[in-house]
Amino acid sequence: MVSDHPAIMPPPKVPDQHPNRDGLLIAVAVVVGAVVVIGGLLTAQRLWADDADIDAAATADPTVPPATVPPPTTAPADRSDSESSAGDTPEGNVEPLPCPDDVAVEICEAADFVQQARGRPFQEFPQVELLDGDAFGAELTNDLADARDEIESNGTVLAALGLIDDDLDLYETFETLLDAGVVGFYRPESGQLVVRGGDFDLYRQLVLVHELVHAFDDQWHDLDRDFEHSDADYGFAAVVEGNASRVESEWRAQLTAAEQATLADQELSAVRPEDLIRIQSVPQAVLALQFSPYSDGEIFVADLVARGGEAAVDNALDTPPSSSEQILHPELIGRPEGEVVTVAPPRPEADRLSDGTLGELVIGLWLGRSAAAGWGGDAYAVWDDDGTRCLTVDIAADDATDLAEIAEAARRWAELDDGRAIEDTSADGQPLIRITGC
Fold first, then answer.
1. pTM beyond 0.90, yes or no
2. 22 phi and psi, to 5 degrees?
3. Alpha carbon 231 to chain centroid distance?
4. From edge to edge, which strands make up the β-sheet containing 430-437?
5. For 352-406, how does the pLDDT look when each residue is reduced to its tens digit (9 = 90+)?
6. From CA 205, how far away is CA 162, in angstroms rounded?
7. 333 contacts 74 by C-beta, under 8 angstroms
8. d(CA 143, CA 164)
9. Which of 104, 116, 244, 361 is 20 to 30 A off residue 423, Cα-Cα?
């Protein structure tokens, strides 16, 4: 399930490794604890394919300013019917769990901030491990290697959608993201919290706050969980990473103006110019999928807190949104438009290699966010056509108008390559658009 949780940006979470698992494009990155040191440069980005230029998704400049996310318009879920595993969140000042005498003062202060922000003490004081150089890198490399087959499988899907080049090695792309600069991670299955060794400057303290939020939430809510399909995995990852990013932002906001300026300098100087160039060469779609749980998740969680306090966050961790649609459009939660239609994986024309769910986030990058807004559910299958990897996707919509809009966007996409086709189909009375690309 979750492999690692990072502090500023990279990958969401990693599912258990299974080659034909309900495919997870959102969590193709392996180390959900890896903190790319250019977080200060990219944290606010939210990258989408433009409706009028679908074929540019894989080559667009990843520094393009993000789209604006409209504020949610509904209150957080009512907790009256299901009590959080953490119980009621106390009001007022929190008596923090005593910090062990042998723990660095910066760790104690960061832990105290997290406990005050989350409204409860830790159940037990988290162990923070400092690793230098090769030892730290080895932890990340091992995790990446364990997920190689899944990463390569997801690269096939992204290439079939036209979101990355056919010859792009997605595994090497993630090696680039990790090698460019990682500062810390947290592993829910073991409770391991690791920070790259060095002085606890403000940047490392920021990273530490983010990771300590994961440790806190894991103690109270159990972050080591699996979900039915990849889009539900994303919904959980967005709450987990969004909450840590939200508390991280609160920590940043309480710094003095001089400290914030120093922190900004440390973030900028933490990445070498050549590494920044390498990261900026990563396809836009890959960056967008990796960063969305942080940026979109933080917006979602901040809105929960504004209307329901920490109790609303507790509720969302216990019963997370079931799709990327609900993260991107929280106003749809509880409404018919927010319900996900179950779509059976299409029967491929040849040997099935894998299947899964794309979700609104991926379809928005692929066909454009306007078309994706009417998404109601989907399923895909990857298959082999005499050595050529092909992908067939069946997409449902909220209504006939939305389905027509998805079909129009798909036609524009199909016109870009002779190996692409679309058709109308249905399953169990549900109208679908079937899209195939090789």
1. no
2. -50, 105
3. 10
4. 352-356, 375-385, 388-397, 430-437, 420-427
5. 888 899 999 999 999 999 999 999 999 999 998 888 889 999 999 999 999 999 9
6. 39
7. yes
8. 23
9. 361
